[in-house]
Amino acid sequence: MDPRFVRCFVVMCKVKRDTIWRRLALYHSFGLSQSQVARAFMIQPQILGALTDESIQRKLLFYQDGLKIALSQVIARPAILPCSVEKNILPRCAVLSVLMREGKIQRDVYLLGPLGVSTKSFSERYVKKYEKDLPDVVRAYEWKIKFKGFMDQDIEIC
């Protein structure tokens, strides 16, 4: 039996039907189709189960307005939706911002790649790789340098 089916089945058994329909409507209100959400659900059942309506809305607004990422791209990589924006995504954005500012990576990097990898992989690729030449990446990853956006003056040192 496919483990994805089992995970989806568990969510469908635990979550009330009205809640699932309400969350589908919430995703739809952001311009996402039912088929996009269904595909994402098969990969990451938490998008309809574990996340609250408020969390879904806050995260979608952050990716859409804060990071300027098309939500169709976000829903295609649903593993990032359950991630904590404050504990996971913002520190990664701070690291990427420092690397962009210093010219270590291009400004037009596809953000969902680095944001969607495992913690170990991100740390190896973007923190440990540059920590000797650029100690600010460690400070950014520890959230001692706050992310303020991907522009010329995009960091705030704490």
Strand content: under 5%
Helical run tally: 9
- Amount of helix: 55-70%
| Main sheet: strand order | 1-2
Order of helices and strands: HHHHHHHHHEE
- The mean pLDDT is 90
Q: What is the molecular shape?
A: elongated
Secondary structure class reads mainly alpha
Largest beta-sheet characterization: 2 strands, antiparallel
Number of domains: 2
> For the terminal residues, how far apart are their CA atoms?
50 Å
Rg measurement, Å: 17 Å
Query: How many strand units?
Result: 2
Poorly predicted regions: 153-158
GO molecular function: nucleic acid binding
Pfam families: mTERF
Keywords: Transcription, Transcription regulation, Transcription termination, Transit peptide
Family: Belongs to the mTERF family.
Please specify the SSE layout and strand pairing.
Layout: H1 3-14, H2 17-29, H3 34-43, H4 53-66, H5 71-76, H6 85-101, H7 112-116, H8 119-128, H9 136-141, E1 145-147, E2 155-157
Antiparallel strand pairs: 1-2
Overview of the structural elements:
The longest helix is centred in the middle third of the chain and has 17 residues, at about 85-100. The chain contains nine helices and two strands; from the N terminus they run αααααααααββ. By secondary structure, it is mainly alpha-helical. The N and C termini lie far apart (about 50 Å). A two-stranded antiparallel ribbon has the order 1-2. It has two domains: about 5-80, no CATH class; about 85-155, no CATH class.
